[in-house]
Amino acid sequence: MKKIIAFVAAAAMSLSLFALDIFNYVQINGNVKNYTQTDYDIGSKFGNLTRTPVLKTVTTLDNSGRATEVTELSPRDAILTKTANKYDVYGNLTESNTYDADSKLMWKTIITYSNGQKTDSSEYDKNGLLRAKTIYQYTDGKLADETGYDSDGALIWKIIYKYNSAGKIQDIFEYNADGALDIQETYSYSDDGKIESLTVYDTYTEQTEKKVFRYAANGTLSEITTYDNTKQVTNRIIVKYDAGGNVTRVSEYNIAQKFGTTVNELISMSEFVYQ
Question: Which of 62, 132, 212, 227 lies at 20 to 30 Å from 90 by C-alpha?
């Protein structure tokens, strides 16, 4: 995604993005102090699926449920990176510092606010040099414009948000530095406010895909199904929960035609343990 600047992107690419994003759609229940996410690489041997842990992420929460520390570990529990977050008295994230395995600073993010609204976010490298800056603008109290600049102040990208009559995000337009539209996202919602679908148009590939969100009888998200521009299913994300209503497993499948039939190929998996 454009919003990840160059020196951060290399580290971010090692993460299981679909599993991390699941908490944009589900909440953590109960008095959870920390949770561990384990991402697996899926393989096959003699026709049988295998899974190998590739990354662990331990997130520590404060009494308000905010992430105060995020530690990435190897499958053998060696520390890879550690991120420490700071909040102001109003609960706003104001500073984030990421360190390597030797506890040396890799990068820092400073976020400022005005009247409770985020105004800008500045990202610095290990030497304290500004590498990127994001400026936020609002209309009627809602985020309307998000603009990213490099260290010289040159525009890199811009995101514009549009809302429906209920005040929920309806469209997100992501633009390149030259002002050309890159990606458009359009959301639809159910009567009770849950996301029903997300339609994404990519101007580079000129392809449209639609993600449909499915919910269980108790209202929890159970599946995200992706359709291509021919309305064929291409991908499924299945979400499982424990008795307390917390996500325990997120599995991603590609849908393909193989050997004369339609197959669901497991391509990635993340599991979660709470304490």
Answer: 132
